């Protein structure tokens, strides 16, 4: 498939082809079907694996799946205890879901770039992107969800009055500086979802692009470059999932604190 696209459209055509989503709709109501499909599938796989581990959990000698799941749960729980200083039973499950889900979506980047698109072409599907976290719509959807949780818990914990008071009288407690305080707080709150979404998207998009560029090289050069980059990319995949999880926990911890 790489050679066919390369011959028909050159290197630029090959890159554009792999960076084009399978879409439906127009304008604002455009849906990237490949992102929705793979994100939903990976979310289902996460739920299935952890449910299976919970159903088969035993106090006797645990199996490999139980050990693996307990290791992840303990790791995430430690991070939550270190970063979250309030009391909320939702935070730990949310952090676990974010870490595992983002990690699974990122891991799709390790598949050969032409594998799933070639299989999809057999069914008449021309475009297919298999890494949901390289879609800005997906990363911003997750970051906006976190932002809504921040606003929700800020109001729930502090109350509408105290939350509004914090916006207008923090960091400078003087009525003449209310416009300046509002501007600073607006920038601070909006920077959280923007940084969350762009950081994950930027790193994964760059990784995907490098894999595509390697696939354009002669076949006898690809193994010498793809394998080292894949090994290094495993670190990026894990790190980005970890950063997204930790920042979410930190932002929600700040929402539970009263200045």
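^ structure tokens above, recovered residues below v
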């Amino acid at each position: 498939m790489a050679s066919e696209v390369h011959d028909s459209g050159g290197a630029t055509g090959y890159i554009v082809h792999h960076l084009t989503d399978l879409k439906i709709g127009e304008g604002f109501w455009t849906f990237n079907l490949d992102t929705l499909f793979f994100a939903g599938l990976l979310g289902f796989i996460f739920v299935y694996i952890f449910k299976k581990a919970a159903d088969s959990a035993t106090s006797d000698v645990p199996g490999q799946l139980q050990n693996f799941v307990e290791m992840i749960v303990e790791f995430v729980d430690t991070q939550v205890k270190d970063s979250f200083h309030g009391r909320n039973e939702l935070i730990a499950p949310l952090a676990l879901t974010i870490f595992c889900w983002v990690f699974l979506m990122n891991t799709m980047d390790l598949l050969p770039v032409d594998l799933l698109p070639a299989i999809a072409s057999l069914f008449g599907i021309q475009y297919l992107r298999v890494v949901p976290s390289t879609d800005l719509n997906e990363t911003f959807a997750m970051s906006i969800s976190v932002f809504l949780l921040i606003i929700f818990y800020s109001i729930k914990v502090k109350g509408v009055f105290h939350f509004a008071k914090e916006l207008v009288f923090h960091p400078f407690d003087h009525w003449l500086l209310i416009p300046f305080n509002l501007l600073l707080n607006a920038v601070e709150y909006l920077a959280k979802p923007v940084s969350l979404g762009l950081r994950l998207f930027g790193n994964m998009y760059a990784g995907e692009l490098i894999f595509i560029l390697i696939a354009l090289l002669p076949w006898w050069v690809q193994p010498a470059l793809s394998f080292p980059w894949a090994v290094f990319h495993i670190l990026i995949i894990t790190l980005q999932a970890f950063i997204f999880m930790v920042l979410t926990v930190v932002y929600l911890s700040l929402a539970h604190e009263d200045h």
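Confidence is low (pLDDT under 50) at residues 3-7.
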